[in-house]
């Protein structure tokens, strides 16, 4: 079977991550340590920023830093650039993520952060990029490149930022890195399992209504990235939202047509998210659960699992729970007759804050 | 004509806000000044938190504080409670918003903030509430109460928090309060205009696909609250997203069936948001614009306005640009045969982190 590039990228993740982990434990270790020290010694806020998949990839690391007492926060670069740059101070550290190192809002924000006297750490997969020129320190992701849609670069960024968080918190990412290496065979098996199961998801995935993705804490990474993948890959609408916010109002939308995916791997809130999934199931919604199995309750009213959950440490869950969405968005695109990974309007690199190059070139050529 | 309670609440906003402004300029002025001083003198972060409509109501004030150099940030209470409370320090000030003062996550977060030694300002419309018991200072919203769905309490919270921001930034909210009073007749006229125009929105609003709401900065308040109103009132799905994030991928979803509302009142980004709206229009999407008119360009390819925009100061735009969504969600509910303002699952007060009292009472009574 000829695999399309996006599918190649999905299956390539374990090998790509092995290269990435080796890089950060070897050649890249000095850079990782230096950046970790900057985070540990910051007297102000740790401001993580980016656009698109890059900003969702920061969520697990920021969650880990917050749980360890660091004043980390996430801000969309486009928002911080236009409405927040007056609040930046020299005590703050900026961690700016751009796969290409060229996203216009990120590059312009790097300039604003430098003007404010901040330390800027640029996280990019492209050495020598404009972001690297502006940053005080560069952390190279070290992932194999994707064909258009962020797949292995997305999970690679998640891992790189978790390594950085470990450097800041415990002074060494070695133990985390070894544990991450050890889980890669499980990741391969999980990708295989998702791909094999995916044909059976068709009746659930294909209806035209919007899919809701819910979760909390580090799981919000896959919630938001999953919704983005549905848009980018399958040209389908999807809503990503925290489970807490969903309970405060949007739950009113639920009916028998509602399709909801609850991401429940994080331990601190697993019980209340299970309860949410099971409540939605009892309301008649088409709910699927992603996370550890629900154990032996006697009620028999459990939201079914989308995919059996591998026995993996919670720290690595963000690399596992996004895989079903990578595969689902790929499959849904094919079922809809769309080439997964092709862009219609946007492009891999967003180099201006207005206009859509791919659309404009077609629009102009038609005239 | 007998108006349903939600419509009464929509039309009651100007009168409710007059009461509110009088309250804060009179009996409530000492409390407003005290809270303003706490914000001005904070040595750490200003952490605004809440759930549902309450958290969206903070966006204009936080935007204003950020533009004036304050390290303000927004965190969902459910997220901060479970994943961020270790990062709270005694230098930080918490501004916790709950209309009822009883939302479980907000009340529990107030306890965590007190444990961390933080100053806690409780913002509530119900004197004597649990939040008030826990807070160091209480800022009473002073709005007339809504029937279930937050309408006048939502815009009332927006105004109260803008008054508080003015107290912090300039030491007095008097001038802002007088300007706010002076714009109330325009708000009445705007509500009338939205209600009269709304019958003509039917062919645009009624299709079953998801509605996208886009904006930036302070307009994100109405973007997010508008999406919430669609869920709560009309039981319809809607996506609220920043225009910047939408450009970085989700734009791929756009087709001739796509319905998009661009909120473009904020001045700093009006030009790029107009450009986005007009690009989407040229792509064939069903786009509507909310904001100042687009002036005399000669291209003739303009996204049409949903409603003529009143000549109102940008500071008050968040009180105006949410009105079309209040009216639209009310109308859409009626067209769908739903009583606008009735809850099916959630309830006005969310007093536990699992379970849905209205659903469970029905579910149990059927057995």
Would you kindly provide a written description of the structure presented here, covering whatever features stand out?
Two copies of one chain form a homodimer. Chain A is of the alpha/beta class and 367 residues long. Chain A has two domains: 5-172, Rossmann fold, CATH 3.40.50; 186-335, Rossmann fold (3-Layer(aba) Sandwich), CATH 3.40.50.10490. Chain A is built from 17 helices and nine strands. Chain A has a five-stranded parallel sheet with strand order 2-1-3-4-5, with helices on both faces. Chain A has a four-stranded parallel sheet with strand order 7-6-8-9, with helices on both faces. In chain A, helix 5 (59-67) runs parallel beside helix 9 (152-170) and helix 6 (77-84) packs across helix 7. The first copy, chain A, is globular. The relative contact order of chain A is 0.13. The model of chain A has no long low-confidence stretch (mean pLDDT 94).
How is the main sheet of chain A built? 5 strands, parallel
What's the number of structural domains of chain A? 2
Sequence of secondary-structure elements of chain A: HHHEHHEHEHEHEHHHEHEHEHEHHH
CATH level 1 class label of the largest domain in chain A: Alpha Beta
Strand element count of chain A: 9
- The pLDDT mean of chain A sits at 94
Largest interchain contact: A-B, 76 and 76 residues
Oligomer: homodimer
**How many helical stretches of chain A?**
17
Give the strand order, joined by hyphens, for the main sheet of chain A. Answer: 2-1-3-4-5
| CATH fold assignment of the largest domain in chain A | Rossmann fold
Strand content of chain A: 5-15%
* Cα distance spanning the termini of chain A: 40 Å
């Amino acid at each position: 079977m000829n695999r399309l590039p996006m599918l190649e990228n999905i299956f390539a993740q374990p090998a790509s991550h092995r290269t990435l982990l080796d890089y950060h434990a070897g050649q890249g270790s000095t850079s990782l340590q230096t950046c970790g020290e900057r985070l540990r010694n910051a007297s102000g806020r740790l401001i993580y920023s980016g656009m698109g998949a890059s900003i969702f990839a920061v969520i697990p690391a920021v969650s880990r830093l917050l749980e360890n007492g660091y004043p980390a926060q996430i801000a969309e670069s486009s928002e911080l650039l236009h409405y927040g740059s007056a609040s930046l101070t020299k005590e703050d550290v900026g961690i700016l993520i751009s796969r290409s190192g060229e996203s216009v809002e990120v590059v312009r924000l790097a300039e604003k952060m430098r003007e404010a006297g901040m330390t800027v750490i640029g996280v990019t997969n492209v050495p020598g990029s404009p972001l690297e020129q502006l940053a005080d320190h560069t952390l190279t992701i070290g992932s194999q490149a994707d064909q258009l849609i962020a797949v292995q670069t997305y999970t690679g960024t998640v891992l790189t930022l978790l390594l950085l968080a470990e450097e800041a918190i415990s002074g060494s990412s070695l133990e985390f890195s070894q544990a991450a290496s050890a889980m890669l065979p499980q990741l391969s098996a999980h990708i295989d399992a998702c791909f094999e199961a995916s044909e059976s998801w068709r009746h659930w995935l294909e209806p035209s209504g919007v899919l809701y993705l819910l979760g909390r804490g580090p799981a919000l990474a896959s919630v938001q990235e999953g919704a983005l993948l549905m848009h980018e890959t399958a040209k389908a609408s999807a809503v990503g939202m925290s489970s807490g916010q969903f309970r405060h109002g949007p739950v009113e939308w639920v009916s028998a047509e509602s399709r909801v995916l609850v991401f429940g791997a994080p331990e601190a809130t697993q019980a209340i998210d299970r309860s949410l999934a099971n409540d939605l199931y009892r309301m008649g919604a088409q709910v699927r659960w992603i996370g550890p199995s629900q154990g032996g309750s006697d009620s028999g009213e459990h939201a079914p699992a989308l995919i059996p959950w591998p026995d993996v440490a919670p720290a690595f869950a963000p690399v596992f729970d996004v895989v079903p969405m990578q595969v689902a968005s790929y499959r849904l695109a094919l079922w809809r007759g769309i080439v997964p990974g092709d862009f219609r309007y946007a492009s891999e690199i967003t180099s201006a804050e207005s206009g859509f190059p791919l659309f404009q070139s077609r629009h102009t050529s038609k005239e």
